[in-house]
Specification:
This protein is an alpha/beta fold and about 260 residues long. The chain is built from 7 helices and 11 strands. A hairpin with a 5-residue loop joins strand 9 and strand 10.
């Protein structure tokens, strides 16, 4: 079995080493990840500048590939340039900070990488660990965080994918682990409506010209059965099956153009 590991926190993140440690007994692993922090980049693809790839040595002494572009770039370079054949599984993570709800589906670089693998027919798993400290959520490099449960659940889900494949109609899975779990259970959930309420911070530069920071305040707990509610209100890990087919029911358009 061949497993490609990537992320959006950067190749030097602690989470990517935790993912490698979680699955290295399941097959041959290769790490191909962005050279720098790429959170919030979504499913972006680099088209107007060259992409460079460098071999780097990680904190545990293992080798990896640092890609100058996005998580999506890293997956494409990994699958079609650095590997001799398509991997059996792509793991994106372990991300610092949860990726929940419908909005994160398109803004998260972690999910974007898993989505790109799925586009090419490779089973994929996005993994994110909830963090409560804002100063480490977008950190670029090593952080002192307990990844033990996240690694355990990553190995559990990854081994199931390799053994059974993904269910029909499921293109990739989104796994989120709470920072203070009530146990080691995994709950199958649907996407919540949103994880954040958008908040814009307006400031002035030294010349008096306005500039803006896009930020977000945590939204409510959402409805029971959603990933947002299950993780935040029940402190339970969530696993959400995702399909690439975002087409709404065609019957809903019947007569609309007439």
């Amino acid at each position: 079995m061949k497993i490609l590991i990537t992320n959006d926190d950067g190749v030097n993140s602690s989470g990517i080493l935790a993912a490698k440690k979680a699955v290295e007994n399941l097959g041959e692993t290769i790490i191909v990840a962005p050279a720098t922090q790429q959170s919030g980049i979504g499913h972006a693809l680099t088209l107007f500048e060259p992409i460079r790839v460098s071999e780097v040595t990680l904190r545990d002494g293992s080798e990896a590939y640092a890609v100058s572009g996005t998580p999506t770039d890293a997956v494409i370079i990994g699958i079609f340039e650095l590997m001799d054949e398509k991997p059996d599984l792509v793991i994106s993570g372990i991300n610092m900070g949860e990726n929940l709800g419908k909005s994160e589906l398109t803004t998260s670089g972690t999910i974007g990488a898993a989505m790109e693998a799925a586009v090419h027919g490779v089973p994929s798993l996005a993994v994110s660990l909830q963090v409560r400290r804002g100063d480490i959520k977008f950190h670029d490099g090593h952080v002192d965080v307990d990844f033990s449960l996240a690694s355990e659940l990553t190995e559990r889900v990854a081994s199931r994918i390799l053994r059974k494949g993904l269910p029909d109609g499921v293109d990739f899975l989104n796994l989120n682990i709470p920072s203070h779990p009530s146990g080691n259970d995994i709950r199958i959930t649907r996407l919540g409506d949103r994880m954040y309420n958008v908040h814009i911070k307006k400031r002035l530069d030294p010349r008096g010209r306005p500039y803006y920071w896009i930020d977000g305040d945590p939204a409510g707990r959402d409805a029971p059965g959603t990933d947002v509610h299950t993780l935040k209100a029940e402190n339970t890990a969530t696993l959400t099956p995702v399909s690439l087919d975002c087409t709404a029911p065609l019957d809903s358009m019947r007569g609309w153009l007439e």
